[in-house]
Write a structure and sequence with these properties.
There is one protein chain. The longest helix has 23 residues. By secondary structure, this protein is of the alpha/beta class. Helix 5 runs antiparallel to helix 16 and helix 18 crosses helix 21. Helices cover 50% and strands 10% of the residues. It starts with a helix and ends in a 7-residue tail after the last strand. Strands 3-2-1-4-5-7-6 form a 7-stranded mixed β-sheet, sandwiched between helices. The structure holds S-adenosylmethionine.
């Protein structure tokens, strides 16, 4: 009976994936990726134009003149609608040029859908949710049932949580789901936090067990798995044997999971998963893609031979744009005051001033200022310049220069939104490349799946893969 249920779950899960993302062959991922790459090549200049250079590089003039005319008087509601994947453009009082409509529609069409199906969410007991912030709680609630299902369909009970941070996920898998978990982390301080979290959990449970009235509930939520903490930097040159050697169960079948594997860790776990025969399943949520682009080698992209053959590269700026939070910005456009929307224009105006006044200062070094909502551009400039440790003596000319940008602040917001549309397309490119890499290595069951609410957790796309073959009728 249990086996029949497990098979039903397996088939249902595979069907879900296949229904949403096509077959387990290289197609249609490869053809979508080819289109994405062509499109990104066409708009390479826009991908690599930072909003902070809006005034210094006169970025507005680089947009086609017909777009400039259309976006000149665009309202914040129209910008919000433009960023909405489901938005059907309302009848525009002044029609937009077809090339602009096509750009917006193509960005949405090429980006993988980001809305989660909202099917399953674990409910965390107090012991697991104590000290866990809302975003992380949401992530755990959505991620853990998926890991559980993927493990059960592959008969796996061991999991390595790579880059475990404070260990919330590892603890939940070990003591909420009864798995044998290795929590691997490079930073000693984070690992210390994870170990402390485990001690606190144990103390919590001991107390609960001592209290007769909560004995039943504590037994329900506590399943005795095992948890080992290992300090290890999973670096790109780590050999798969050396990785396995550090795990407490070595050659045993296991799943690799990573929640927000930043920088090189993301691509590295794909390589390890493909290379280790005992790694049977992978559940990976990416983050901070640009951190694997900041050194000479671009380890993060491409991974697949398919993209290598296309000779496509992504820049640091592109990877950074992939991490922008379009859904959150859309909400901001819908609901907030003009002051908050002006932040891109303000930073660009300060950049213009800094370039003129302090030519020896590095470009793009103007940092964000907090609590800027009700500031004028001059107040913002003062706060930003003082944050940079530069002398604060603004002359009348400086003030005039800053204020001369005011009539174009709304254009900077429109430019930011146009560029923002490309973020999910770039993330699609990165994700498809990773899935193609897995498929090229024979992992035919490798899928991309939106798991988290993108407004709560913008890096919400999971790559879920397993090596076992199932027949789906
Ligand atoms: C964004 S945090 C996510 C932490 C945790 N998974 C979570 O979601 O709460 C990424 C973690 O990965 C760790 N990390 C980054 N690169 C690593 C590497 N190469 N090997 C092991 N851990 C790494 C960082 O120290 C950090 O704790």
């Amino acid at each position: 009976m249990r086996r029949n249920n497990a098979i039903k779950i397996v088939v249902e899960l595979i069907r879900d994936f296949v229904r949403s993302m096509g077959s387990s062959s290289l197609e249609p991922y490869a053809s979508l990726l080819t289109q994405v790459v062509r499109f990104l090549d066409e708009y390479d200049w826009l991908v690599n134009s930072l909003s902070i250079h809006f005034f210094t590089d006169d970025l507005w003039s680089k947009l086609p003149t017909s777009w400039q005319a259309a976006l000149q008087n665009v309202s914040t509601e129209q910008l919000a609608e433009m960023l909405s994947p489901r938005g059907h453009p309302k009848r525009r009082s002044t029609p937009w040029p077809l090339s602009l409509e096509a750009f917006v529609a193509t960005c949405h069409a090429l980006a993988l859908p980001r809305q989660p199906a909202a099917k399953e969410a674990a409910s965390l007991s107090h012991s697991f949710s104590r000290f866990v912030k809302g975003k992380k709680r949401h992530e755990l609630e959505r991620l853990v049932p998926v890991i559980d299902r993927v493990c059960s369909l592959n008969d796996i009970s061991c999991v390595v949580d790579v880059g475990c941070g404070q260990g919330h996920l590892a603890r939940l898998l070990a003591y909420g789901y009864g798995m044998s978990v290795d929590a691997v982390e490079a930073e000693e301080s984070h690992l210390g936090g994870a170990e402390k979290g485990e001690r606190m959990l144990m103390t919590d449970w001991e107390k609960q067990e001592q209290r007769a009235e909560s004995l039943t509930s504590s037994k329900q939520s506590f399943r005795k798995g095992s948890l080992a903490h290992t300090r290890l930097r999973v670096s790109p040159d780590l050999k798969s044997d050396d990785f396995l050697e550090r795990l407490s169960w070595k050659e045993k079948r296991h799943a690799i999971v990573g929640l927000h594997t930043c920088g090189n860790l993301g691509p590295t776990i794909f390589r390890l998963f493909a290379q280790c025969s005992s790694s049977r399943a992978l559940v990976s949520m990416g983050c901070c893609y640009m951190k694997s682009f900041d050194c000479e080698s671009t380890l993060g992209y491409p991974l697949s031979q398919y993209v290598k053959d296309l000779s496509h590269q992504l820049s640091f700026r592109a990877a950074e744009l992939a991490c922008h939070t379009m859904d959150a910005y859309r909400l901001r456009l819908q609901g907030c005051n003009e002051g908050k929307l002006n932040v891109h224009a303000y930073r660009a105006a300060v950049e213009l001033l800094v370039c003129k006044k302090f030519p020896s200062v590095d470009r793009s070094s103007v940092r964000k200022v907090r609590n800027y909502a009700n500031m004028s551009v001059v107040e913002y400039a003062k706060a930003a310049i003082s944050k940079m440790g530069l002398p604060l003596d603004l002359t009348l000319n400086d003030v005039e220069l800053l204020e001369s940008t005011c009539p174009r602040h709304h254009l900077a917001t429109a430019f930011f939104c146009i560029r923002l549309l490309l973020g999910p397309v770039i993330e699609t490119c990165l994700l498809l490349d990773r899935v193609l890499y897995l498929r090229e290595h024979g992992v035919l069951h490798s899928y991309i799946w939106p798991l988290f609410d993108p407004r709560l957790s913008p890096r919400n796309m999971a790559i879920i893969a397993w090596k076992k073959q199932f027949k789906v009728s």
